[in-house]
Amino acid sequence: MYLNVFICEDHPKHRAHLDKIVKEHIAHSDLDVVLSLTTDDPSNVLEYLEENPGNTGLYILDVDLRHMMSGIDLAAKIKEYDVNPKIVFVTTHSELAHLTFSHKVNAMDYIIKDNPKNVKKRVVESIEEAYAQFLSDKVSKRKFFSVKSGGEHWNIPVDEILYFETHQSVRHRIILHTRNSQIEYRCLISEVSEKEPEFVRVNKSYVVNTMNVLCVDKTNMEVVMKNGAKVPLTASRVKALIESTQTT
């Protein structure tokens, strides 16, 4: 799961500047952050959120968008789709800051465009702060997967699980692969996909965690995981897998 960043700014030069700041910071940091949308139209932001439910994001918005919907109006609408949005206003209109209170928009920052270096500094700080909040929210909502192996009970964070595979030589035994380890335990592969909605069976011997799928390679019929591991994929399961990765 990533923190999505959205930019809505009507001025082309300012929009390009914000886009560059965000992209450069993502490229030079080790954050699970994606620039999902840069636009001058607030309707595009709402359409994206409607089509991609469950996303959480940092929204960098101009106040005056030269649109029937202002940035503050947009922020209020965003709250209907994102239960915990991180809002940052970047604007020339310092006199409009009070409107964020009357519209009950709890903005992280209100940045004035008069100094490009200051804008960059404050936007980067906002990304870092939003990401810290994102991680905190993620930990508080973290799910765990329980297995018993070798007389021990393991509680494994679901987001750390990559995939499961059937043991090749021991019947009714599964190998669970995490980012850093492997755990063998007694189970049927058919039962694993029933445990969590993120667990999707991709062939008779493998179940992947869609939270950690990097891409679906339909040319080579493989599922590429975020650690580079490749899991064989059956053609009949491609559609279900792609649909599941889009909702994770």
Task: Describe the SSE topology.
Layout: E1 3-8, H1 12-27, E2 33-39, H2 42-51, E3 57-61, H3 71-78, E4 86-91, H4 99-102, E5 109-112, H5 116-140, E6 144-149, E7 152-157, E8 161-166, E9 173-178, E10 182-186, H6 189-192, E11 199-203, E12 206-209, E13 213-217, E14 222-225, E15 230-232, H7 238-247
Helix pairs in contact: 1-5, 2-3
Helicity level: 25-40%
CATH fold node name of the largest domain: Rossmann fold
What topology, given as strand order, has the largest sheet? 2-1-3-4-5
Tell me the structural class: alpha/beta
C-alpha termini separation: 7 Å
- What CATH architecture of the largest domain would you give? 3-Layer(aba) Sandwich
Taking all residues together, what is the mean pLDDT? 88
The H-and-E topology, N to C, reads as EHEHEHEHEHEEEEEHEEEEEH
Proportion of residues in β-strands: 25-35%
Output the radius of gyration.
Answer: 22 Å
Number of continuous helical runs: 7
Please name the fourth-level CATH homologous superfamily of the largest domain: Response regulator
